[in-house]
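Hey, quick one: can you model this chain's 3D structure?
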Amino acid sequence: MFDSLSDKLANAFKKFKNKGKLTEADVKEGMREIKLALLEADVNFKVVREFVKTVSERAVGSEVLESLVPAQQIVKIVNEELINLMGGAQAKLDIAPKPPTVIMMVGLQGAGKTTHSAKLALMYKKQGKNPLLVACDVYRPAAIKQLEVVGEQIGVSVFSMGTDTSPVEIARRALQHAQKHGHDMVFLDTAGRLHVDEVLMAELDSIKEVAAPTEILLVIDAMLGQDAVNVAESFNNLLDITGVVLTKLDGDTRGGAALSVRHVTGKPIKFVGMGEKMDALEPFHPDRMSSRILGMGDVLTLIEKAQQSFDEKKAEELEKKLRESTFDLNDFLDQFRQIRDMGSMEQLMGMIPGMKPGALKDAQIDEKALSRTEAIILAMTKKEREKPSIINASRRKRIAAGSGTSVEEVNKLLRQFEQMNKLMKQFSGMANGRTRKRMKMPFGF
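Sure thing. Here's the predicted structure for all 445 residues.
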């Protein structure tokens, strides 16, 4: 996501470096590079034109021309305007004062409505809500079955009435069911089409009239690029959507939709899909997204991911083991899993300040190697995990065979564990006699 745009903006900012003062000609040349970078990222042309005009007017002003570090000031202005372009502040989901809160999910076929209905239901289930998923798509083959499968996967009830009942009647009956069974959030998974048409919109408008949704969220595939903006404009004109869910932002997308949708429709992006897993959904923060685009990292999201994966009870046990120098391979595996649950290493590294999103594209981080590490530990006996020193040559051969790996990989893991154990003992010794602060994040961060 945004790899190409980030690189091109970085090159544009180089135009301003090593200059004591900036002239209008300098600003014009740099803005041309920024304009090309945005257009190549598939940002809407009108949006680019207004963005460049605003940044140029501020950049040519005295605040930059008289600055001792004009290059930094240019980056600051671009950052602020990117944030404004994407909505300024985070737009949260509205919750109805009287339950249930009805969320109507709309969009074209294949955008990810069913999956993201489930992702949202899971997100709010974790916050203490009692969501209900409703199968209003009676046209797409296996649509109802898909919703039932993901509903079962996340432990959320699914309301369906088969394919012979109209979607409008299903929505009406679903609301009655929700009130009767105490569901405080209802997600209506509606049908899509390959393109916007009158039949689709008439049906959605009828569902809207019956369900009186608190939110109408348009699910858009970010891979559509410029077409995503046209889709958003069409749905907004006909349904007056309240927000957007932008999917597949973890894919090889140029990012233009994220920078254009808010400006063109006037409606905020509320959530972004960052992967296939059910928990791979993030609230959209314009300031954090701008930081990622400009290579400034996203520490707040990184911390939030760590807190979600953090197990306080296990952290207390780990602290005790570190004090007593009894850290073993079971603990190593627990910490490994907590870090892995935060997301892919490439995504996590992209959130670190100074690490550009595309910086790791040639590093070839082998996610499968992480799975092999887990397999090696699981192939060990309980006694071997608790006391790795007993793992001799014959045991290493058995572990390699049991995990489908090589003896060399087993040896490498044991060396890594031994190095970590030594480090733990050093930290434990340094902290001895002092007041220890309880760990608030998984080990390694």
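One thing worth noting: The first helix runs from residue 3 to 14.
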